[in-house]
Design a protein that fits this description.
With about 350 residues, this protein is α/β, with parallel strands linked by helices. About 40% of the residues lie in helices and about 15% in strands. Helix 2 packs parallel to helix 7 and helix 3 crosses helix 6. The radius of gyration is 20 Å and the shape is globular. Bound molecules: pyridoxal-5'-phosphate (PLP). Pyridoxal-5'-phosphate binds next to helix 3 and helix 4.
């Protein structure tokens, strides 16, 4: 990806926004952050949101607000970035991993129910690569077992599922504004969306040392506040997010039409979904070979992710069984992320397509 081209197209407005923060000296939270919260909630179709200092903090604060604590279990996919599971562990709870669907690579709803027991408190699905998890069956399971749903929407700003936006189906939705995300800060950031005003109030206390009135600390809190500068910058960038997501979708369509006849598995967008292609990941058992081939021709690629969470030493438990996650393990061995960012020139997508075709033509 290339963050510089986007910055150049926005630099005037970004500097004006930053100057407003310098003029007001509101460096931590402040009015730029609170107006960003309103604007981001509106973008998501949620009544309100709370800004925090990272996507990880968003997950951590959301899980705490949902009442997740020591002795609890949270059901979550192994096919994700480790932050999803880390946030559960930060609460003193245990992530209980579930394998992914072979096509979408999102949590497989048919494998959730068998992992539920009396300790289960919540389901934490991830909308991987910008495609939402299959939320209808997940919502039904959550309802019948009285579990909360917390969405990890860190890769899915603007994604939708049967008319509902990412972050609005669960009790709480968690977003990251890490620079490389579809909406990226110039630093770290995150947000939580929810329609529950009480939970939002609790999150606003948790992120700010457990206090609402200065120097009064009824609950244990954290320093998870968003910088004023990031709020101001994100507000400028948010106005472009829909058009940036549209550009990603056009580029994805170009990749798909150029590669669909090859022996590669391409991302899919099931009926009724809006994919926002945070990652454009293709799958082949010859992933390593293809990555070297592209690298030798000047095409950078990535792997999201090479190792499923249940295989990470810091995230394993005594009862973790490697044979329970065949689809995630396979996906991690086969996925290769092609260049994808809104400013990517269609000519360059064609170049990547030609190099991949040449690889399979040999
Ligand atoms: C990026 C990401 C996070 C963590 O967000 P940070 O802002 O980097 O803390 C959590 N979950 C997923 C799925 C992510 O992609």
């Amino acid at each position: 990806m290339d963050l510089n081209t986007q910055y150049k197209s926005l630099s005037g407005e970004i500097h004006e926004a930053m100057d407003r923060v310098f003029a007001s000296s509101q460096y931590s939270q402040g009015s730029e952050v609170s107006s960003f919260e309103k604007a981001f909630a509106k973008f998501c179709g949620s009544p309100d949101s709370a800004a925090v200092n990272s996507g990880t903090s968003a997950l951590h604060m959301a899980l705490l607000a949902a009442g997740v604590g020591p002795g609890d279990e949270v059901i979550t996919p192994t096919m994700t970035f480790v932050a999803t599971a880390a946030a559960v562990i930060y609460c003193g709870a245990k992530p209980v991993y579930v394998d992914c669907d072979p096509i979408t690579m999102n949590i497989d709803p048919t494998k959730i129910e068998s992992r539920i027991n009396e300790r289960t408190k919540a389901i934490l699905p991830v909308h991987l690569h910008g495609l939402m998890a299959d939320m209808d069956p997940i919502s039904k399971i959550a309802q019948s077992h009285n579990l909360k749903i917390i969405e990890d929407a860190a890769q899915a700003h603007g994604a939708a599922y049967h008319g509902k936006n990412a972050g609005t189906i669960g009790t709480l939705g968690c977003f990251s504004f890490y620079p490389g995300k579809n909406l990226g800060a110039y630093g770290e950031g995150g947000a939580i969306t929810t329609a529950d005003a009480e939970l939002l109030d609790l999150i606003r206390k948790l992120r700010n040392w457990g206090s609402d009135v200065k120097y009064h600390h009824p609950i244990l809190g954290f320093n998870a506040r968003m910088d004023g500068l990031q709020g101001a910058i994100l507000k400028v960038k948010l106005k472009r997010l829909t058009s940036w997501n549209d550009s990603r979708r056009v580029l994805a369509a170009q990749y798909i039409s150029g590669l669909s006849d090859l022996d590669l598995i391409l991302p899919t967008e099931p009926e009724g979904y809006r994919h926002v292609y945070h990652i454009f990941g293709v799958r082949t058992p010859r992933r390593e070979e293809l990555q070297v081939w592209l690298n030798e021709r000047g095409v950078q690629t990535g792997i999201h992710y090479p190792i499923p969470v249940h295989m990470q030493p810091a995230y394993r438990f005594d009862d973790t069984r490697d044979d329970e996650f065949p689809e995630a393990t396979k996906a991690c061995n086969e996925l290769l992320s092609l260049p994808m960012f809104p400013e990517l020139a269609p000519d360059l997508v064609d170049v990547v397509i030609q190099h991949i075709r040449a690889f399979f033509d040999r």
